[in-house]
Every structure is written in C-alpha cells, then in structure tokens.
Amino acid sequence: ILKRLPQGVFETLDGKTFDPHQLYQQGPLGLLVVHYWGTWCAPCEAELPDLLAFIKRFENRPDVKFLLIAANDEKRKVEKHLKSLPIPKSSIIWLLDNKNIHRAQYGTTRVPETFVFSSDKTTLRKYVGPQEWNRPMIFQNFDEFIQISSSKM
C-alpha cells in the first residue's frame, strides 16, 4: 500500500520534465490528485468526461492540483483525445508514463486508478477502477480530505 507520494520525474505533453514534488514547494498545497488513465482503456475513456466535470468544481482552489497521467500511451493519441473533451480551466497537469516506470512506483496494476495525497504528501485514498465522480459521496470524501489536509499544514 502506497503511504507517501513517490519520487519521480514525468514527461509533460510538451516534452518537458515534471516533478510532482515541486508543487509542494510552490506554495501551500492542500490536495494532490494523481489519476492514471490511457486512451487505449475503454473504462478510462468513459470515465474521463465525468472526472473533468468533477475537477471543474476546484477551478477556484489553487491549493488542489490534479495530475492526469497517460500510462503506456502515445502523445499524439492523448492530444487527439483531449481535443474532443471540454477541459476545465483548473489546475490539471497532463503527463505521460510511457515506460510504466512510475506506474510500478505507485503500485498501479490497472487503470484507471486515482490517488489522493495530503499537504504532507501522505496518501489519503486510492480509488481503483472507474468512479462516478459526480456523486455526493465523492464530494463529501473530498471535503473531508481537504479538512484533514488543512490540519496537517
């Protein structure tokens, strides 16, 4: 079971490197949500619009960041797929894990999987499989995560 945010540097869609730990150095970070998905995964594609609508709820929360990581995927396929979706103006960072290096560090055996990390980089929750992101129970979970994380700041 993953207890803390692993070390590792990802590739962004524009070919730059990205270290999730940098987000914690840029200012107070209440929650970091790491979501593994792939264009080759039918449940991932079906879930993504619902997840993006959920992320839209956090547009005015600079202390909540989302990393959406395409696992074992092609950059051009990811970019083509994203053009077909309404992308919220929130803090989404799109990343690639083409060699599944980080996927192993996270202990992700299948996608979609989502991890929620607190302000001290500890794991608050792992969601396995596709979720119905716009259910009241998920909203309640995230409100609780924000409270827990705030108490650790």
Per DSSP, what share of the residues sits in E-state strands of 2 or more residues?
Answer: 15-25%
Major sheet: arrangement of strands: 2-1-5-4-3-6-7
Tell me the number of strands. Answer: 7
Terminal Cα separation, in Å? Answer: 23 Å
Average residue-wise pLDDT: 91
Largest beta-sheet characterization? 7 strands, mixed
Order of helices and strands: EEHEHEHEHEEH
Task: Count up the helices.
Answer: 5
Structural class: alpha/beta
Shape: globular
What's the gyration radius in Å? 14 Å
State the helicity in percent bands.
25-40%
* Low-pLDDT residue spans: none
Structure description:
By secondary structure, the chain is an alpha/beta fold. 33% of the residues lie in helices and 24% in strands. It contains five helices and seven strands. The protein has a seven-stranded mixed beta sheet. Strand 4, helix 3 and strand 5 (92-97) form a beta-alpha-beta unit. It starts with 9 loop residues before the first strand and ends with a helix. The model has no long low-confidence stretch (mean pLDDT 91).
Q: How would you summarize the topology of this molecule?
A:
Blueprint (H helix, E strand, L loop, with lengths): L9 E3 L4 E2 L3 H4 L5 E7 L4 H15 L7 E8 L3 H9 L8 E6 L3 H6 L6 E5 L5 E6 L7 H17 L1
Parallel strand pairs: 3-4, 4-5
Antiparallel strand pairs: 1-2, 1-5, 3-6, 6-7
